[in-house]
Amino acid sequence: DTEVTQTPKHLVMGMTNKKSLKCEQHMGHRAMYWYKQKAKKPPELMFVYSYEKLSINESVPSRFSPECPNSSLLNLHLHALQPEDSALYLCASSQEEGSQKAFFGQGTRLTVV
Amino acid sequence: GEDVEQSLFLSVREGDSSVINCTYTDSSSTYLYWYKQEPGAGLQLLTYIFSNMDMKQDQRLTVLLNKKDKHLSLRIADTQTGDSAIYFCAEKIGGGADGLTFGKGTHLIIQP
Question: Which residue of B has its CA nearest to A87?
């Protein structure tokens, strides 16, 4: 099983809303990631969790708040977003050692109105 | 971060071989990866190569790495319509879980 599951697949939210994106993997990976991908651009790293601790925050605005409740789950809490935050949000997981092949979910297509 | 460069488009005829090229600038890259992204979908890991290897073959896919020139290529033999997608090369630097730096992606277009 090399599956990373993200929900929801699509999300439309207003600028005053609070919503959460969810990600789940059962590969026993201890590193999990959030990436943001704008149209026709490559994914850009946002956050890295290693052994359920936040290890990298790529200067992401505080309106994005990650959470790792356990080794299988990763959330991204959204609050007071801007229209320019509309993008595909991708979750990935990998082993902590070795090749660290990262497996990606299908993403959540977020539209902020 | 360091730049990873790719040409934006590649057009090939069905049945021919496709060669997608990538250059990177950080000589401390440990692993290099190729991902495929179809429209509206996530990224699918195709293959990867460790930085001390020159070549890796996996069925229709061949990865070549020239570490001296910091050049990576992906060859797809017998290209099919289902290979139409955007192909990203990505590098990982260092030993910990640091995330990946992606190239801009190459859009592979298959002509019938």
Answer: B40
Tens-place pLDDT, residues A43-91: 999 999 999 999 999 999 999 999 999 999 999 999 999 999 999 999 9
Query: Alpha-carbon dihedral of residues A29, A34, A38, A42, nearest 10 degrees?
Result: -50
- Digit-coded pLDDT (tens) for B57-102: 999 999 999 999 999 999 999 999 999 999 999 998 766 778 999 9
For residue B95, which residues of chain A lie inside 8 Å, CB to CB?
97
- Shortest CA distance to A104 belongs to which of A22, A23, A12? A23
CA B41, CA A17: separation in Å to the nearest integer?
26
Give yes or no for A68 touching B (CB within 8 A).
no
Cα–Cα distance measured from residue A54 to residue A34, given in angstroms and rounded to the nearest whole number: 11
Chain B contact for A100, CB < 8 A?
yes
What percentage of chain B has pLDDT greater than the value 90? 76
**Which residue in B4, B86, B98, B104 has the most chain A C-beta atoms within 10 A of its own C-beta, making it the best mutation to test that interface?**
B98
A82 neighbors A112 (Cβ within 8 angstroms):
yes
Distance CA B85, CA B80 (A): 11
